[in-house]
Amino acid sequence: MPPIRHISTINPVRPSERCGVSTAENNVGSSLAALSAAIAVLYTDKMAKRTTRRNRAPARRKRAAPRKQKRVAKKSTRLATTARVRRPPKAAMAAVAAGKTMSAWTADEIETAFRRFAAANPDPRGELKHVDPYTLLVAVVLSAQATDAGVNKATGPLFQVASTPAAMVALGEEKLRDYIKTIGLFNTKAKNVIALSQQLVERYGGKVPHDREALEALPGVGRKSANVVLNTAFGEPTIAVDTHIFRLGNRTGIAPGLTPFEVEVKLNEVVPDRYKLHAHHWLILHGRYICKATKPACDRCIIADLCKWPEKTADAAPPGTAL
Ligand code: SF4
User: Fold this and answer.
1) Looking at the chain, which runs of residues are DSSP E strands?
2) Which pLDDT belongs to residue 322?
3) Whose CA is nearest to atom 1 of ligand 1?
4) Ligand 1, atom nearest to 290 Cα
5) Does residue 307 line the site of ligand 1, with CB under 6 A?
6) Quick one: pLDDT band at residue 263, thresholds 50, 70, 90?
7) 309 lines ligand 1 (CB under 6 A)
8) Ligand 1 atom showing the smallest separation from residue 307 Cα
9) pLDDT tens digits, one per residue of 87-111
């Protein structure tokens, strides 16, 4: 039995490292969280040897060629429906390990951070264009591993011709593919959108259900997508953890976690209830435009004085920031 090496030996996260994970990982459920943590803690020397780039590359190449098409379909089908068993992102492990030496945020600091977010942007909005819960749901499903701007470009013309589940079913998969072919994984996404629209017509009278379980049972809809719909369409205080929030939670130390689900649980524990409705949007916008994956704009950050990241490049919030 090789000696057990603890993850705390990993160096702290560096500014050039991207703490985020793919949207597929964002949809991982609680069962994986426990498994991921176990894998992270029991990261043995033997496993380290097996996963070196040198050892791993030839095996990947060998498998990739003959099964390329199949693998793409399988991977995208898993976007939101099945938890993948994989090691947590290396940078997240490093950030969590670093978090052990970062001081935890106090309740006062968290209150101050969200008070500032609220003062700076009292009514934050998501950037996916939609007109109702159904168009939001479709936009969210299409946004997996794609940018909001790219999705909006496709959904503008699409929603002109199909903005209800019945109209989408009537449009059909082939025509839908034409509208969304600029978005990654469009083949599987087209299948999912048609299938979920069909289910909405058959089971819910063409309406989007206001229910987490029912949402997560729809094709292409995982926990993160359900959280977005519950929050934005139905006003539930849910916090969807995407790549930006995952990075922000770990980097700042406000909600460290090895998986998006762990970060979500932690945020739900620490964010005061009165801020939860908008927390998702404040955090995602902060991560997207200020605390970016590479070169975070610490000099423009309104929580720079509160952030625990050892490598931040500013210690004070800009002049004029609310107290
Ligand atoms: S100071 Fe702000 S921008 Fe810089 S790392 Fe911390 S949260 Fe991100």
Assistant:
1) 4-5, 43-44
2) 76
3) 304
4) 3
5) yes
6) very high
7) yes
8) 6
9) 566 666 666 666 566 889 999 999 9
CB 95 less than 6 A from any atom of ligand 1: no
Task: State whether the beta carbon of 298 lies less than 6 angstroms from ligand 1.
Answer: yes
Q: What is the ipTM of this complex?
A: 0.99
Q: Please name the residue that has the structure tokens 């959904």.
A: 155
Q: Quick one: which atom of ligand 1 is closest to the CA of 303? A: 2
Q: Is 154 in the pocket of ligand 1 (CB under 6 A)?
A: no
Instruction: Tell me how far the alpha carbon of residue 67 lies from the centroid of ligand 1, in angstroms.
Output: 42
Q: Is 43 helix (H, G, I), strand (E, B) or coil?
A: strand
Domain ranges of the chain: 133-230
Q: Whose CA is nearest to atom 4 of ligand 1?
A: 298
Task: Identify the CA nearest to 249 among candidates 231, 232, 261, 236.
Answer: 261
Torsion of the alpha carbons at 305, 308, 313 and 316, rounded to the nearest 10: 0
* Residues labelled catalytic: 224, 242
**CA 149/CA 146 separation, integer angstroms:** 8
Rg of the Cα trace of the chain?
A: 21
b (16+ CB within 10 A) / e for 145-164? bbebeebbebbeebbeebbb
Q: Which CATH superfamily is domain 133-230 in?
A: Hypothetical protein; domain 2 (1.10.340.30)
* pLDDT tens-place string over residues 139-176: 999 999 899 999 999 999 999 999 999 999 999 999 99
Residues 6+ apart with CB under 8 A from 62: none
- pLDDT tens digits along 109-129: 999 999 999 999 999 999 999
Please name the residue whose Cα sits nearest to atom 5 of ligand 1: 312
